[in-house]
Design goal:
Blueprint (H helix, E strand, L loop, with lengths): L1 H12 L17 H6 L19 E3 L9 H5 L5 E4 L4 E5 L8 H5 L5 E3 L14 E2 L3
Antiparallel strand pairs: 1-4, 2-3, 3-5
């Protein structure tokens, strides 16, 4: 068993971090001033790979209202609107597992590469479709 774990352990130890650094090198007195200061540019963002799972995209015109995504979602991030026979997605609840995209028979759901989706307005994270 230990022989199966060691290669994976070494691969993780020597691989680069996949997280974004804090925007400034040191904590400034005011983060707003530091981000707008042209003399101290923020740290660059980490590029995302092909299999990255970010914010959900929803194509409302393709949706057939089968409710499979509602049933499979472990975080209860999708709600079914019975009168419209469509869904809405709460990205603030989503755990980005992509189970809904895999189970969708018409592929109206897809994962994007957008990861900076936090907001003070909770309604800004609700996706009703395009």
């Amino acid at each position: 068993m230990i022989t199966r774990i060691l290669p994976q352990l070494f691969r993780h130890i020597f691989s680069r971090a996949a997280t974004n650094l804090f925007p400034a090198a040191h904590m400034p007195p005011s983060l707003t001033d530091a981000l707008s200061d042209p003399d101290s540019p923020p740290n660059p963002t980490v590029p995302v790979g092909k299999r990255f799972r970010g914010r959900l995209n929803y194509d409302r015109s393709k949706c057939i209202g089968c409710k499979l995504c509602v049933r499979v979602c472990p975080a209860h991030a999708t709600d079914y609107l019975a009168e419209e026979k469509k869904i809405i997605i709460h990205n603030d609840r989503c755990c980005f597992c992509a189970q809904c995209t895999e189970v969708c028979p018409v592929k109206c759901l897809s994962m994007s590469s957008q990861f900076m989706i936090s907001s003070y307005d909770r309604k800004a994270n609700i996706v009703t479709g395009a």
